[in-house]
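Saturday, quiet lab. Running sequence design on the structure tokens for the scaffold JK sent over.
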């Protein structure tokens, strides 16, 4: 394709970065998302301190929730989110559509996060 278009890899990468910067993102507390998707009563399920920007676990995507996982490569947006969330967070690529961000203030051990990802992949994600 590069030969057909008459461009270099570095040109394609630069254009891709420029296009990504134009894309909006959507950051949502994971519990708020669960409540909204399932039509649940959030007040009963999750206390206020776990919801909204007070929470510690977020889903990052784009407004359409399609191919939002590419935000993993948008260092500027991740830096902006680091400022918003309080500097340090773990990034878990959840799918091609979204990333999960976990504030590091939860004092989760990296091995625990690895185990959690492994367990979800083993029990929930289909091999295909």
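Result came back. Writing it out in full:
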């Amino acid at each position: 394709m590069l030969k057909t278009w008459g461009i270099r890899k570095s040109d394609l990468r630069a254009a891709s970065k420029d296009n990504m910067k134009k894309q909006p993102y959507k950051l949502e507390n994971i519990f708020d998302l669960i409540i909204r998707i399932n039509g649940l009563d959030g007040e009963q399920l999750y206390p206020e301190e776990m919801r909204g920007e007070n929470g510690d676990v977020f889903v990052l995507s784009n407004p359409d929730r399609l191919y939002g996982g590419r935000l993993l490569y948008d260092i500027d947006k991740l830096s902006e989110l680091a400022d918003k969330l309080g500097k340090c967070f773990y990034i878990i690529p959840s799918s091609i559509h979204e990333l999960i961000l976990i504030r590091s203030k939860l004092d989760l051990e990296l091995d625990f996060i690895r185990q959690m990802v492994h367990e979800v992949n083993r029990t929930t994600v289909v091999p295909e």
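Notes for JK: The chain has a mean pLDDT of 82. The helical segments are 2-5, 9-22, 30-38, 42-45, 75-85, 110-123. Ask whether to fix the surface positions before the next round.
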